[in-house]
Amino acid sequence: MTSLFSLLLSLALLSLSFLTTAVSASEFTFQEATIESIHLAFAQNRLTSRQLVDFYLDRIQTLNPSLRCVLEVNPDALAQADEADRLRAEARGGKGTLGNLHGIPVLLKDSIGTDDKMNTSAGSYALLGARVPRDAFVVERLRSAGAVILGKASMSEWYSIRSWEMPRGWCARGGQGVNPYVKSENPCGSSTGSAIAVAANMVTVSLGTETDSSIICPADHNSVVGFKPTVGLTSRAGVMLVSPRQDSIGPISRTVSDAVYVLDAIVGFDPRDEATGEAAKFIPMGGYKQFLREDGLKGKRLGIVRNPFSNSRGSTAASIFDQHLGTFRNYGATLVDNLEIENIDIILNPSKNGEMGVLRAHFKHHINEYLGELSNSPVKSLADVIAFNSNNPDLEKMEEYNQDGLIAAQMANILDEEVVKAEHMMKKLSEEGFEKLMKENELDAMVTLGLRAATVLAFEGYPALTVPAGYDDNGMPFGVCFGGLKGSEAKLIEIAYSFEQATRMRKPPLSFSSEFHYQYYYEQSYGTM
């Protein structure tokens, strides 16, 4: 009875605290909550990490059967939230300091390893039960920053390499991910679940991975911010790789500032990923939050590339994009319009650019290395994965999609002459195309409508940042993509943040929105006092 009375008294005091602080601060809203608003609610004792995690778990339970974007929730998520609340209480008493993501729930793409009770399966049943040797480096950094690891997000199985016929966003474990804005439209992949969950307010932020378009495309299609850093800025150690020359780990969020909070937490040198040694020189003293400037467009020189990107999204999107160009000018940017990327037709043509052959060969090589480090794994090589699929046709839903892509990868080799030639061609296409465009026009960023420029930025590991920019006549989202030379994250953040603050185009998906204000959810969850 005493403990029950204490609980009721604590809840009553919390309700009273909310009522008194609401006068001096805007009411906290779970929907579209940002890291800054959550931290403010924490500081004002209007929210706990447990309540936040409870809310997201309820959203996942309610919406995931329709959206199919979360493969599993972390059974330790509530315990992590309770620990975050305990440490926050200690910090108020002058004991210890808190990380910038303290108590913030984060979803991870299902190819990012966690040494806990969850699986890391790339969407496939072949890896259920396998144990990774350690947390991925980016997961270590998230935990150090205080984040709550909420669960694993669905993805295109084996990064869509499984089959040429397989639609983006499908995996055997989760089925087909669903776009929360237009259910019949492509949610895009391979970081599908990471984007859908953030868009539908099922988590604060998430992590995705990109080889070519796999952060930018789902972010664009689901009206969220996607940030693919320069290759090597974030470590790939502990993450299933497709290609070390292209793969990057980055945040997906509802705002640019939230993406930057996550980026600050996960960048840094890692001796297990040699690419981080070269990229570490790009990380600024004081981190990236200092570049969240509303006047960030002022003085920037932007290269506008319309062909062939603007024509691919329809007349409504193209018209809105033109309006955004006016915003860039009004906020002090200089535009160099109607630029052309040399050999763009080759760059965007998979049958000519050689990229697919390179990616298959690299995937085989690196997935074999990754699988070899696992314990308790049913598969130890790509050949084992193919055999598992063949031996478990019902489990892996072979009647729906075959594994011709995996078989093609098994036949490839990184030392094959055509693979080596293709790598040289991709490098040359980048140097004579995107790099030449940027340097000759002295640009701070390239600006395009939609996502297709992600491929331009993929070949040599350049950074890309997409921001919600509008919706077409059918309600389908589209973004504006900002791309820069290696290490130009600071400029991209300034430009993207200024654009976002000036336009504020993102809207939550109507079909999956609910105006859950703090007091309403509090009363529903804990009762009225």
Automatic annotation (TrEMBL):
Which keywords label this protein? Signal
Q: Which Gene3D superfamilies match?
A: Amidase signature (AS) domain
**Domain Amidase intervals:** 52-448
Task: Say yes or no: keyword Lyase present.
Answer: no
Q: Report whether Lipid metabolism shows up as a keyword of the record.
A: no
Which InterPro entries did the record assign? Amidase_dom, AS_sf
Q: The organism sits in which domain of life?
A: Eukaryota
Q: Where is the signal peptide?
A: 1-25
The entry's protein name is: Amidase domain-containing protein
Q: Which organism is it from?
A: Corymbia citriodora subsp. variegata
